[in-house]
Amino acid sequence: MGRWEPDARDRLVRAALDLFSEQGYENTGVAQIAERAGLTKSTYFRHFRDKREVLFGGQDELLELITEGVAGAPESAGALTAVEAALVAVAVAFTEERRANGPRRLAVIASNDELRERDALKMAGFARAMKDALRQRGVSELDADIAAELGILAFRRGYARWLETGGDFAAVARRALEEVRVAAASLERPHPSN
Amino acid sequence: MGRWEPDARDRLVRAALDLFSEQGYENTGVAQIAERAGLTKSTYFRHFRDKREVLFGGQDELLELITEGVAGAPESAGALTAVEAALVAVAVAFTEERRANGPRRLAVIASNDELRERDALKMAGFARAMKDALRQRGVSELDADIAAELGILAFRRGYARWLETGGDFAAVARRALEEVRVAAASLERPHPSN
């Protein structure tokens, strides 16, 4: 795919974010994005299925990293340790380029209902991948559901913080997971009298 | 809306589930559903925006009940107690009619990618409503996120169990929430050495 334009993908993402920020997501077309990037529409479609996907690229890579991360945790590891391994495994995808684009990307997504839905489905897909990989390790349905949801909360919080602070995504995400774990363990029992 | 056909909505849902089960969701049209229910297409569209929505009716009512349930919990209640109040509040919507349709409804949703996405978005919407209502009570962002996600897990587990056992949805959902809470509090700490 486009060996002669090694940075085509990054150029398309940057051009799209420029245009979405300047004139709005709704008012921007794929042809315009390609033109701004100095590429053709057909190059665009070799990289992204449609206009929306330029904002959600790399999802398949993250899904794979999550699955491999959970699967690769030591055999003795519990559910949360395996989730932590997934957060560490995805760090390789969180490059400086991704961080530079992050704030504008989030702002565009927040501006549009359809994009917010797409983002919610992406997160649900990540949770599903974590859960399935945990089930493969023999974790119970309930623990896998909970650990995956807490893992996704940590992922989101870690991502937001990493956009601000930079540094190693793995370290930021691990701290976020520990905060989430402590908070989850500290929620009160609904019926103290029971 | 259709006072002269007081049960139009239920008839449309039943007709749709009959047809989806007999011949598949993809092969069924709105006109056919209306015909099977002995109603007109325009009556269908007074009740449901499109074909998909016949499977997701009542979502706005549930969102309101969730918000009111959380808001109506005693002032002293913590996040999980407020979530529990929401699960109790929604029980009024879980009628015998809904239970009778439930298994076929779930089977149709599971059969189709687009419907599974729609269902995931519905659940994300419930989580969001819970979280927002918890934030209104002064619950921290993190605790609100966690309590809402655990609440939705309890909601889903409670719903699945209630379809099997029947009885009072509130009681089933409360038991599910307690199970989720106990499991969440029991997840291991990832780094015992830290």
Automatic annotation (TrEMBL), chains A, B:
Which keywords belong to this entry?
Answer: DNA-binding, Transcription, Transcription regulation
UniProt KW Iron keyword: no
Q: Name one Pfam family in it.
A: TetR_N
Boundaries of every HTH tetR-type domain copy: 6-66
Residues annotated to bind DNA: 29-48
Q: Which residues cross the membrane?
A: none
PANTHER family to which the protein is assigned, alphabetical: HTH-TYPE TRANSCRIPTIONAL REGULATOR RUTR (PTHR30055), MYCOFACTOCIN BIOSYNTHESIS TRANSCRIPTIONAL REGULATOR MFTR-RELATED (PTHR30055:SF238)
Task: Name the chain's protein.
Answer: TetR family transcriptional regulator
The organism's lineage? Answer: Bacteria, Bacillati, Actinomycetota, Actinomycetes, Pseudonocardiales
